[in-house]
């Protein structure tokens, strides 16, 4: 019963598209925009990073994250919460709950936490033998454009 409830919530929370051969279905692609390290002393260091697309898939119980176009290597996360994600859009502003899931992964002494909503992905990595935590932020990647973008200096085409 609990498993089917989680699967139903996932299906309503995030759009699911093409099915993968293992029963995993696509959530979509996200693009990493920023990364920071937080040290044990509280120092926050922004890490320069080039935008990188991630492909996200789920079977309703687990989430797989891989580099876009490289579906043969992924990280797997176990969903533990699917009743929404709390977030604050402005410092000191109200806390709102948006549809989303939270998942974790423990592999070789490294604990990873994933927060996934329709438009954002936040991955927090807690290495077991380090005092540094790494937080990676990604946003939903725009769909690929089949045509070049319109020049804003030109008027819109006639109907």
Task: Record keyword descriptors for this entry.
159 residues, mainly beta, Lipocalin, two-stranded antiparallel sheet, signal
Explain this structure.
- 8% of the residues lie in helices and 49% in strands.
- The chain has an eight-stranded antiparallel beta barrel with strand order 1-3-4-5-8-9-10-11. A two-stranded antiparallel ribbon has the order 6-7.
- It has one helix at residues 2-13, and strands spanning 25-38, 44-47, 52-58, 62-67, 75-81, 85-88, 95-98, 100-107, 110-117, 120-127, 133-140.
- It is mainly β and 159 residues long.
- It starts with a helix and ends in a 19-residue tail after the last strand.
Give a topology summary.
Blueprint: H1 2-13, E1 25-38, E2 44-47, E3 52-58, E4 62-67, E5 75-81, E6 85-88, E7 95-98, E8 100-107, E9 110-117, E10 120-127, E11 133-140
Antiparallel strand pairs: 1-2, 1-3, 1-11, 3-4, 4-5, 5-8, 6-7, 8-9, 9-10, 10-11
Q: Decide which structural class fits the backbone.
A: mainly beta
Quote the beta fraction: over 45%
Number of domain units: 1
Supply the CATH architecture. Beta Barrel
Q: Can you summarize the main beta sheet?
A: 8 strands, antiparallel, barrel
3D shape: globular
Q: Report strand order across the widest sheet.
A: 1-3-4-5-8-9-10-11
* Alpha carbon gap, first and last residue: 53 Å
Quantity of strands, as a count: 11
> Mean of residue pLDDT?
80
SSE succession: HEEEEEEEEEEE
Q: Low-confidence runs (pLDDT<50, min 5 residues)?
A: 1-20, 150-159
Taking Cα atoms only, what radius of gyration do you get, to the nearest Å? 18 Å
Helix fraction by DSSP (H/I, runs of at least 4)? under 10%
Give the C-level CATH assignment: Mainly Beta
Total helical segments:
1
CATH topology assignment = Lipocalin
Keywords: Signal
Signal peptide: 1-18
């Amino acid at each position: 019963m609990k498993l089917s409830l989680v699967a139903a919530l996932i299906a309503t929370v995030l759009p699911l598209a093409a099915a993968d051969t293992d029963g995993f279905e696509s959530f979509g692609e996200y693009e990493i925009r920023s990364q920071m390290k937080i040290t044990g002393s509280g120092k926050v260091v922004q890490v320069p990073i080039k935008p990188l697309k991630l492909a996200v898939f789920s079977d309703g119980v687990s989430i797989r994250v891989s580099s876009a176009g490289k579906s043969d290597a992924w990280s797997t996360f176990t969903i533990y919460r699917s009743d929404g994600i709390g977030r604050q859009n402005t410092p000191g502003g109200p806390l709102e709950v948006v549809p989303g899931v939270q998942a974790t992964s423990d592999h070789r002494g490294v604990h990873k936490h994933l927060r996934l909503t329709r438009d954002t992905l936040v991955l927090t990595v807690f290495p077991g033998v380090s005092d540094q935590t790494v937080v990676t932020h990604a946003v939903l990647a725009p769909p690929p454009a089949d045509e070049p973008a319109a020049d804003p200096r030109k008027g819109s085409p006639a109907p």
